[in-house]
Amino acid sequence: MALVVQKYGGSSVSDARSIKRVAKRIAEAKRAGNDVVVVVSAMGDTTDELLELADEISPKPPQREMDILLTAGERISMSLLAMAIDKLGVKAKSFTGQQAGLLTDAVHGKARIVDVVPHRIRQTLSKGQVAIVAGFQGVSTSNDVTTLGRGGSDTTAVALAAGLDADVCEIYTDVDGIFSADPRIVPGARKIDKVTYEEMLELAASGAKVLALRAVEYARRYDVPVHVRSSFSGKTGTLVTGTHGDLIDPNASTGDQEEAMEDPIISGVAHDSSEAKITVVGVPDTLGQAARIFEVVAGAGANIDMIVQNVSVAATGRTDISFTLPHGDVRSTVAALNAVKSELKFDELQIDDEIGKVSLVGAGMKSHPGISARLFGALRDAGINIEMISTSEIRISVVTRADSLDDAVRAIHTAFGLDSSEGEAVVYAGTGR
Ligand code: ADP
Ligand code: ASP
Ligand code: MG
């Protein structure tokens, strides 16, 4: 008997029929003799709709109220799912994040889990019942309801799996696993059978939203094996674990090392259209300016991604500094920088909302020269201009115009020979929002 944590994303529970379908799957897992804990997201695009609704009321609503509002989405799906399972003759109980013991810090909108105390979940399991937990939410040390940031139900699932010492955390979604690129953009993307935490961290950090970044960080820290798969098919998905070699096939005679020799150079192409670019124009090129700018930016709570500083113009001794950050952080960052404009003595701020970022990720890249040249060549051949570049040992990212992003993803995918020969990847549901 195994203890399994299953997480169902919004597109897997978008209407009553889907909820009944998922309930059947859960009941089967329970009847097969497993202890089953289910984490569920809000139905379909409910979270986006609630965000839009709040925006109609106020452009800057109190964060505490936003969290209360957004957590309502998961309450709806968790209770409906419990009813659907109960109807199939299997006992199930639903719990909010607070009831399930997900304790977080008090940072509304992107709270971090500080402890998991799942007494009630354990009790429920010991009675032979299925426990359903609302994803994406917890309760803060000051007893307020919090949310964990977009995609946070993945994090709830992994945290519960770690806290309950589960055998596996299954992430059920609307595609058959993790692919070499988003199958919504690249129909010829290939399914990846196994990927390491490190590679998945880079993919998620680069925008592959199939798994939330925090969830991967958590899984790596607590060594939770994660299986990403479709709730619409019975296919085996993608295993995310510590190594390429320690995975499902218990009969395989090959050890880690032999398997590692077959590791692909590239694990995938990720894209991200959730960022904007701010350029601080005409910054005096003197000691400590960058430090001061980014202190101010950090003070505004922005998560900076890429940074480029140009060579200063000799005649003026001034330079431009550009950086990318999530769209949602632009307003507060611009306000914070403008507030210190006279102290920092820059000329102006330019804001560019129309950028996209494409990243090539793979642990094998570090030992293979010529990868950047091939990537840049692919974009040139596709007529796509590169605006910013950043690299790490296992990733190359470039910023393009937002409207060339999809073409850039496809061009790079093809240039690195990633296109599948096995037909098109299936996208079962969802709106890609
Ligand atoms: P859920 O509602 O189940 O949480 P998400 O929309 O958050 O689902 O994540 C699944 C989506 O992630 C897929 O439908 C796909 O469009 C997108 N995606 C982006 N990159 C990848 C990738 N490399 N592999 C698979 N899916 C990806
Ligand atoms: N419902 C939340 C969101 O849309 C959490 C999740 O689905 O993971 O971001
Ligand atoms: Mg998700």
TrEMBL record:
Pathway: Amino-acid biosynthesis; L-threonine biosynthesis; L-threonine from L-aspartate: step 1/5; Amino-acid biosynthesis; L-methionine biosynthesis via de novo pathway; L-homoserine from L-aspartate: step 1/3; Amino-acid biosynthesis; L-lysine biosynthesis via DAP pathway; (S)-tetrahydrodipicolinate from L-aspartate: step 1/4. Transmembrane segments: none annotated. Keywords: Amino-acid biosynthesis, ATP-binding, Diaminopimelate biosynthesis, Kinase, Lysine biosynthesis, Nucleotide-binding, Transferase. InterPro entries: AceGlu_kinase-like_sf, ACT-like_dom_sf, ACT_Aspartokinase, ACT_dom, AKii-LysC-BS, Asp/Glu/Uridylate_kinase, Asp_kin_monofn, Asp_kinase. Its EC number is 2.7.2.4. CDD domains: AAK_AKii-LysC-BS, ACT_AKii-LysC-BS-like_1, ACT_AKii-LysC-BS-like_2. One of its GO terms (molecular function) is kinase activity. Residues 278-354, 360-433 form the ACT domain. It catalyses: L-aspartate + ATP = 4-phospho-L-aspartate + ADP. Belongs to the aspartokinase family. Catalyzes the phosphorylation of the beta-carboxyl group of aspartic acid with ATP to yield 4-phospho-L-aspartate, which is involved in the branched biosynthetic pathway leading to the biosynthesis of amino acids lysine, threonine, isoleucine and methionine. This is Aspartokinase.
